[in-house]
Amino acid sequence: MLSVLIPVFNEDIRNLVNDLNNQLVELGFIFEIRVYDDGSHENIRDLNKEIASNDSIIYEELPKNIGRSAIRNKLAKEAKR
Fold first, then answer.
1. Range of 37's domain?
2. For residue 33, which of 4, 5, 16, 81 is within the disulfide window of CB 3.0 to 4.6 Å?
3. What whole-number distance in Å separates Cα of residue 43 and Cα of residue 24?
């Protein structure tokens, strides 16, 4: 299984994630895409929530910013192996 781990802070990542998802499906990979929002502004979170409707995408919003290293470690720890 391939795990694609994307930490995000105040960026609209809908196009990136949808493009990645489509490419991985087309290539026939078994995969998960994990996107964790690290305390972005509400308007950005509202945009990015749209990706959660896809079953192969795990979208989680953290209640406050934990920082670059901590969010990357959290993503790696929770990825399927």
1. 2-78
2. 4
3. 28
